[in-house]
Amino acid sequence: MNEFWNARYARDNYVYGTEPNAYFQKEIDKINPAGKVLLPAEGEGRNAVYAAKSGWEVTAFDFSIEGRKKAMSLASQNNVEIDYLIKDYNDVVFGEKSFDLLAVVYVHPLAAHKSAIFDPLISFLKKGGHVIMEVFSKEHIKLQEADPSAGGPKDPERFYSQVEIKELFKGFEIINLEQTVLRLDEGEFHKGESSVIRFTGVKS
Fold this sequence. Notes:
Layout: H1 2-9, H2 22-28, E1 36-40, H3 46-53, E2 57-62, H4 65-77, E3 83-86, E4 99-105, H5 114-123, E5 125-136, H6 140-146, H7 162-168, E6 172-186, E7 190-203
Parallel strand pairs: 1-2, 1-4, 2-3, 4-5
Antiparallel strand pairs: 5-7, 6-7
Helix pairs in contact: 1-4
């Protein structure tokens, strides 16, 4: 899997674009004051850089060295600093209640691994901290089959349902939880009609 993502991110262009995810941008702009944000599987850094430009103290991680190179270059172009670690989910260790915001944008682990991945990430979030999430829904597989450029993993078990998100983030106050079909235009690999779930919550 490392080889796959390193090969994808080694391209000259930003394969998911340089602009932040629209839902992430809208939701993070509502949170005031800015604090510390954690972005897992951050890839080429588009959301991390936007958060830093908005005054957030940014920590991001991914296992792709090529993704980090692109992210650090994008940060330099925008005159901001981000702390970007080369880590897998199992390797990240932060103090409990270290972050004010957890941003989960198109993070799709295997279904069997989701709880093991999200439980620690949630523990790093302060009480009263926010989560912002946009991911592909289980309905996306039909749209992906019709138009592969819509993107997303090939294994449908990696997609999410609203019930699953409620279970992963049980104990959170739900600010928004919706499934919607929209037309993505995020670089080369998120382009087309897509079924996504959007979630904003607050840790109780």
